[in-house]
Design brief:
With about 450 residues, the protein is of the alpha/beta class. The protein has 13 helices and 19 strands. The protein has four domains: about 150 residues, Rossmann fold; about 110 residues, Transcription Regulator spoIIAA; about 120 residues, 2-Layer Sandwich (Transcription Regulator spoIIAA), CATH 3.30.750; about 60 residues, OB fold (Dihydrolipoamide Acetyltransferase, E2P), CATH 2.40.50. Bound molecules: S-adenosyl-L-homocysteine, iron/sulfur cluster and FE3-S4 cluster (F3S). Iron/sulfur cluster (SF4) binds next to helix 6.
C-alpha cells in the first residue's frame, strides 16, 4: 500500500516537471496533439489513456494532423498490412517535419515493441523522436519531458513483468460506450500470433478496481461498457464472478466483453451471460478454423466438436443467442478441403458477424517456421468465397428478427439521411428513422427488414 503511494508521488513529480517543460517550450500557449490508434479495442483503449495523460500535461487534442505540435501513432503488429500502414504514414509525417522542425513525432504500441521494428525506426526514420512499447506507459511523462528538454531521441521497449497501472486518466472518444480493460497480455501462444510477444504475459486487474471504474462510468452516464482482454476467460479472479458483480451495479446500462478463447469458454459463462440481465446475449468466440488438424497446428487446444457444444448449449437456452467469430484463411499447409471445413462450420453456427483475415506470417512466431505455401492470390480467393457465403448466412439469420421488437442503444447517425444506428442487445446493427436527440438512449425498435449486415426497423 505504502509503496504504491510513493510511486504515485513520483508520477506526480514527473507530471509537474513535464507541465513546466511544456509551458516553457510553448511559451504559455496551448500546444496541440494528434493521436491515432491502429489495431484492436485494447489498443484504442490504451490510446484513450495516453490522450488522458497528454491532456494532463497541457496539450489540447486535435483531429488535424497538419497543425499538431505532437503527433502520436499508436501501432498494431497483428498482420503485415498493419505494419505497412504505419510505415506509409511515417513517410508522410517526414514531410510535415520538414515544414515544422519543432514537430515532435512519437511512435508507440505493439509494433515497436518488436526489437527489429524499433531498430528500423531508429535507422530509417530519424525524425521520430520518441518510441515506446506497450510496457512504458508509466514512464510517459518522464520520456516526453526528456524529448522536449534535451531534443534527444528516446527509445524504450523494455519488457516489464507484472505492471498494471490503475487510475490512469482517459480521454474517451465516446460519451455513450466505454472500454474497460480487465486484463492485459496473453499466455496462449497460438502459433500464428504475435500478441503474446508484444503484450507480455497475462495480468488481471483486481475485481474491485474494475467494479469501481465501471461504477464511475455509469455515474458519468455511459450506457454500454465493453470489458477487454485477449482472453477474458482466463481472468485471474473468475470472469463469471466479475460479470455478476458488475451486473449488480445499479443503473440502466449494458455490459459486453471480448475476446473469449473457446478452450476456456464454459457452460457457466453462458449461464452467467443469460442470467445477468445487463450482460448482452452475444459471444465473440474466435474459432479461426473449422478443421481439427489446422486448429491443432494453430495450438488452439479445442476441437470443432467442443466448440459446437458451447454453441449448441447457448442456443438450447436462448434460441436467438448471437455469436460472432474470427477466421484465418490460408494457414501454412491448409488444403482446400480443410478450408471447406471452415465453410461448413460457418453454416452450422450461423454467426451474425464474421471477421476473416488472410494468414500473415509474423516473424518470431512458431508458424513462421512453417512454409507459407499458399499464394496471396489463393488466400484472397478463399477469403472472397467465405465472405460471399457468410453474407447470405447473416441475412438468413437476421431475418428471424423481422416482426420482433428489439432493444437498441442509439449510438450514431445511420447510413441514410435522417436515420440513427445502434446495436441491439444481441449485438446486431439496427438502423431506424429517429431524431438525433435519441443518441445515447435505449429505444425499442420493431424490426421490418433484414439486410446482409444489419436490421432495419421503426421506433415503437
Ligand atoms: N485474443 C484474441 C485475438 C486477438 S488478434 C483472440 O484470441 O480471440 C485478432 C484476430 O486477428 C485473431 O482472432 C485472428 O483471427 C487474427 N490474427 C492474429 N494473428 C494473425 C495472423 N498472423 N494472420 C492473420 N490473422 C491473424
Ligand atoms: Fe493471439 Fe491466441 Fe493470444 Fe488471441 S489467444 S491474442 S490469437 S495468442
Ligand atoms: Fe491489438 Fe494489434 Fe496489439 S491486435 S494487441 S494492437 S498487435
Amino acid at each position: 500500500m505504502e509503496l504504491k503511494s510513493i510511486s504515485c508521488a513520483f508520477e506526480d513529480l514527473d507530471l509537474l516537471m513535464l507541465k513546466d517543460a511544456v509551458k516553457s517550450k510553448y511559451k504559455g500557449s496551448v500546444p496541440r496533439c494528434y493521436l491515432h490508434s491502429y489495431g484492436c479495442q485494447q489498443n484504442v483503449s490504451d490510446g484513450e489513456k495516453l490522450k488522458g495523460m497528454i491532456v494532463k500535461s497541457g496539450f489540447s487534442l486535435t483531429d488535424d494532423e497538419a497543425s499538431a505540435d505532437l503527433i502520436v501513432i499508436n501501432t498494431c503488429a497483428v498482420r503485415e498490412n498493419a505494419h505497412e500502414r504505419v510505415f506509409g504514414r511515417l513517410g508522410e509525417l517526414g514531410h510535415l517535419k520538414k515544414n515544422n522542425s519543432e514537430l515532435i513525432i512519437c511512435v508507440c504500441g505493439c509494433m515497436v515493441q518488436q526489437e527489429h521494428i524499433a531498430e528500423k525506426i531508429k535507422k530509417t526514420y530519424p525524425f521520430v523522436s520518441l518510441v515506446f512499447g506497450t510496457f512504458a506507459y508509466s514512464d510517459f511523462y518522464r520520456m516526453l519531458r526528456e524529448v522536449i528538454m534535451s531534443g534527444k531521441r528516446v527509445f524504450n521497449i523494455e519488457e516489464k513483468k507484472s505492471e498494471i497501472i490503475e487510475n490512469m486518466p482517459a480521454e474517451r472518444s465516446s460519451s455513450i460506450r466505454a472500454y474497460v480493460s480487465v486484463m492485459y497480455g496473453c499466455n496462449n501462444f497460438c502459433t500464428y500470433c504475435i500478441v503474446p510477444y508484444v503484450r507480455g504475459r497475462e495480468r488481471s486487474r483486481p475485481i474491485d478496481s474494475v467494479v469501481d471504474e465501471v461504477k464511475g462510468l455509469v455515474n458519468d452516464g455511459y450506457k454500454e461498457i465493453t470489458l477487454l482482454g485477449q482472453n477474458v476467460n482466463s481472468y485471474a479472479y473468475g470472469f463469471p464472478k466479475l460479470l455478476k458483480r458488475l451486473n449488480d451495479i445499479e443503473g440502466d446500462f449494458w455490459i459486453r466483453f471480448m475476446s473469449s478463447h473457446p478452450k476456456d469458454a464454459t457452460k457457466e459463462l453462458i449461464d452467467t451471460i443469460l442470467d445477468c440481465d445487463k450482460v448482452c446475449s452475444h459471444l465473440h468466440l474466435p474459432v479461426q478454423s473449422g478443421n481439427d488438424e489446422i486448429l491443432s497446428k494453430m495450438n488452439r487446444r479445442y476441437s470443432v466438436e467442443k466448440y459446437l457444444e458451447i454453441v449448441r448449449y447457448a442456443r438450447s437456452r436462448c434460441k436467438d443467442f448471437s455469436f460472432s467469430t474470427d477466421i484465418i484463411v490460408g494457414f501454412p499447409g491448409e488444403s482446400y478441403e480443410q478450408f471447406c471445413d471452415t465453410k461448413k462450420l460457418l453454416e452450422k453456427v450461423k454467426y451474425d458477424n464474421v471477421y476473416s483475415f488472410v494468414y500473415s506470417k509474423r516473424e518470431g512466431t512458431k508458424a513462421a517456421e512453417l512454409e507459407d505455401n499458399i499464394s496471396v492470390k489463393q488466400k484472397g480467393l478463399w477469403l472472397r468465397e467465405l465472405l460471399i457465403m457468410q453474407r447470405e448466412i447473416t441475412e438468413k439469420w437476421l431475418s428471424r428478427f423481422v416482426g420482433k421488437t428489439l432493444r437498441i442503444l442509439a449510438e450514431d447517425n445511420g447510413k441514410k439521411e435522417g436515420t440513427l444506428s445502434g446495436h441491439s442487445y444481441e449485438n446486431i446493427i439496427v438502423e431506424f428513422v429517429g431524431e438525433k436527440k435519441l443518441i445515447g438512449s435505449f429505444v425499442n425498435i420493431k424490426i421490418t427488414k433484414a439486410l446482409n449486415w444489419a436490421l432495419i426497423g421503426e421506433i415503437v
